[in-house]
Amino acid sequence: MREPEMPAAGDLEVAGDESMVGSILSYENLVHAVSGAAGSVTAMSIFYPLDTARLRLQVDEHRKSRSTPAVLMEIIKEEGLAAPYRGWFPVISSLCCSNFVYFYTFNSLKALWVKGKVPSTGKDLGIGFIAGVVNVLLTTPLWVVNTRLKLQGAKFRNDDIVPTTYKGIGDAFHQILRDEGLPALWNGTFPSLLLVFNPAIQFMFYEGLKRQLLRRQAELSSLEVFAIGAVAKAIATTLTYPLQTVQSVLRFGHERLNPEKRTLGSLRSVIYLLRQRVRRLGFLGLYKGLEAKLLQTVLTAALMFLVYEKLTSITFRIMRLKH
Fold it and tell me: Do residues 52 and 84 touch, judged by C-beta distance below 8 A?
């Protein structure tokens, strides 16, 4: 009887490459990415005014109102009923792209590294961190533009804030490139890279809590998904909030007044801004707007995970029925 031919080493390498590409370019990863993007857009659209209040508290240091309802009432009184939704479209567009990239990268890395192995919090944190870095490098220009658009027309207490006249997303990109140069689109990149620990910590706790619950039951209820999503985001936001404040300040472009200080957000500039905020507002100034941020991000993340889990579950169920 003729012995079966063993595959050549080159064939094994090609097969391995094809398997890796298949793991990355899989339909499952696309489903996760689309579901994550849809979940984030749905959640942010509902809780958007809370994000408006948070951003105003972070950037406008002289605003005396500290509670979220008070800030929202001030904004509506001074700027109109639609003001809390100013800049909604660019934020939603950026969020959709950002979450698509993050969920796709996270699940691709998970398919490559965790497949056939025992999942752990350490692996979740590492995968979340790498997915965050990829996301930051690709989508920071979108967030710089949407921060500018969201704050355009706002009534500030700070005299050193330069008003802008952007007509939309395209015009904002054009004016920033013309007046401030290409690097300005990546303002706040350094604190953003540090902040990849935020979604990494969030996903680490979410995946960990999810695994613990699934050991005792077949699937999670909607309330359980909402709850663990909220807990995971609350922990991540509280730990990283001072850096989020610096990120917002850099994205808005306070350094436009002094071109010599224009920066992508180096470690020196991050430390400088943190020290300046502590000197002007005290240590608690690092957490100004935290109430609004927690209220917004916790509710948004919880709803996002709920929509994400439901969409992926329904989609995969339909796929199984078709096959």
Answer: yes
For residue 150, the one-letter residue type is K
- Cα angle at 280 between 274 and 281, to 5 degrees? 85
Q: How many CB atoms lie within 10 A of CB 242?
A: 20
- DSSP 3-state helix, strand, coil percentages of the chain (rounded to 5)? 80, 0, 20
| DSSP string covering 46-101 | HHHHHHHHHHHHHH-TT----SHHHHHHHHHHHH-TTGGGTTHHHHHHHHHHHHHH
Contact 131, 199 (CB under 8 A): yes
The CA distance from 12 to 25, in Å, is 20
pTM of the model: 0.71
- What is the maximum span of the chain, computed from C-alpha positions, in angstroms? 90
**Cβ(301)–Cβ(221) below 8 Å:** no
DSSP reduced 3-state for 181? coil
Instruction: Name the DSSP class of 267.
Output: H
In single-letter form, the type of residue at position 157 comes to R
Place of tokens 């949407």: 146
Q: Residue 128: which of 99, 106, 96, 98 has the closest Cα?
A: 106
Cα distance between residue 185 and residue 252, in whole Å: 10
Those residues whose C-beta lies under 8 Å from the C-beta of residue 183, and which sit 6 or more positions away, are 262, 264
Place of tokens 């001030």: 74
> Tens of pLDDT along 199-229?
899 999 999 999 999 998 888 999 999 999 9
Residue 106's contacts (CB-CB under 8 Å, 6 or more residues apart) are 32, 127, 128, 131, 203
- H or E element at residue 318: helix 290-322
Domain ranges (residues) in the chain: 29-322
- For residue 210, the model assigns a pLDDT of 93
Looking at residue 124, its pLDDT comes to 87
Superfamily of domain 29-322: Mitochondrial carrier domain (1.50.40.10)
